[in-house]
Amino acid sequence: MADGTGAAFLASNAGRVLAGDTLDDEITVRFWVEVTSRAKAREQVVGLGRYGTTLTILSSGAIGQEHLVDEDDEEAALFKSWKPQFKW
To answer: Are 45 and 56 in contact (CB under 8 A)?
Structure first.
């Protein structure tokens, strides 16, 4: 578990885990994965009671979106690539 995260904080207190406490925080994704990006992510943590552990959910609307292609552009490129082109 990454130090400095809500998950580490919640997991360090057995009473809060047992009580099913939750945390919701914005973090830098670098806390969890080795990347050069300083993208923000949402960290949601819930104590799982008698299981004695936590569940952590990370989500981000920015991560992975920089490589998406607009579907209209992709469709236009596909149409153009299949359209017969004659040279006279």
So the answer is: yes
